[in-house]
Amino acid sequence: MESLPDAIVQYILSHLNNARDVALCNCVSKRWKESLPYLKSLYFPRNSFDGYTGSDSPDIVIWKMLSSITCLEELVVYSPFTSSGLASWLLLVHSSLKHLELRMDNITDYKACVDSPSKLDCVSAAKNLESLKLWGVLMANPPKWDVFKNLKSLEIVGARLEDSALSAALRACPKLTNLVLLGCEGVRSVSVELPYLEQCKLDFYGLGNCSLSLTCPKIELLEVQGCSWLRVRETTCLRKLLIANNSGRVYMVDFGKLSALESLSMRGVQWCWDAISKMLEWSSEVKHLYMKVEFTGDLESLLPFPEVDFVEFFNSHPKLQKFDIHGAMFAALCQKNSLKNVEQGFVIPCLEEVVVQVRSPLNAEQKMSTLESLLKYGKNLKTMVIRILQMKSNHSSSDDFFDEICRLRFMNRKIVRIE
């Protein structure tokens, strides 16, 4: 390092971002210390001030480091801080700061949320942000944000939100292309209207009874967990869609034709059959279909799926390449009438990979017939994975069924695999 020109040393050290490493480098020599102004990114881990015995508070220490940097673009703070500390930092770096990530730690502190200015309100000073990520947020009241004209990515992880507060926050970010809300509770009804949004991941924690209305004509990827009612009308660009509800039920979906959809995943304990059948109808162009829904039925009644005609299903999804089928959907394809009227010349043209979960020996004959039919008509099938999970039965039918699956694997050992 001693033989390198100053510009090269500054370039190398400018790629440091951990605050402790930066502080240690400042102690090496005056030459290294003079590289501090050229830092582009600064990261304060959770334990940044463990064992710290200095007279200055952590807020002041961070302020002193930031005041030495001429053009900071990224600031990540996981260590504890106050709203006044945050306000003072952003006053220093707001003009150059593009990426901000904060561990707020106020999800249970209502007093900190209503204090003025709150930590959330202070964020408004960084007007040129391109990405903002917040951890552990209590958003009981609408944040006092001006419009972030350059903000493209907003991520909130682990939050307690009120509907009105979330709506106000989204209105302040009209240019978003990426929105992530993970582990968020308290939300009952969400309306998202973002004309440039391309990727959206929403994970609502709680009873699973939220409603979502999304108007985003450029949306390409959408993942939603915890909603019972979904309305997403403009979907001409949507390529990947995941809908899950691990706590509640999916009652209603309204998507329209999903002409660009390539990947669809439906998960949950219970979906109304109308919602399932509509999703299958709209996604006729899908290439990867993942289905793990255990029951259908309205309200409290848990019912098995009605019969799904094997031939009609695959004729309705001619581009299907990968099919992950679990739970009730596999049972529905295996009912007695599903394969009675296979038309001459029927093939499954594009199917290359099938993953099936089997948990019960009930209707073993029909299940074996369906597995054999996938092999017979899937002319381009390269892989079939059969996962046998928690098959509990004292009856000999379990052993017989397992023997049949093993026979199938032996006869098609280049394709079939048992896990």
Automatic annotation (TrEMBL):
SUPFAM superfamilies hit by this protein: RNI-like
Pfam families: F-box-like, LRR_At5g56370
Domain (F-box) ranges: 2-34
Domain of life: Eukaryota
Domain F-box/LRR-repeat protein 15/At3g58940/PEG3-like LRR intervals: 92-199
Entries under PANTHER family matching the protein: F-BOX/RNI SUPERFAMILY PROTEIN-RELATED, FBD DOMAIN-CONTAINING PROTEIN
Descriptive protein name: F-box domain-containing protein
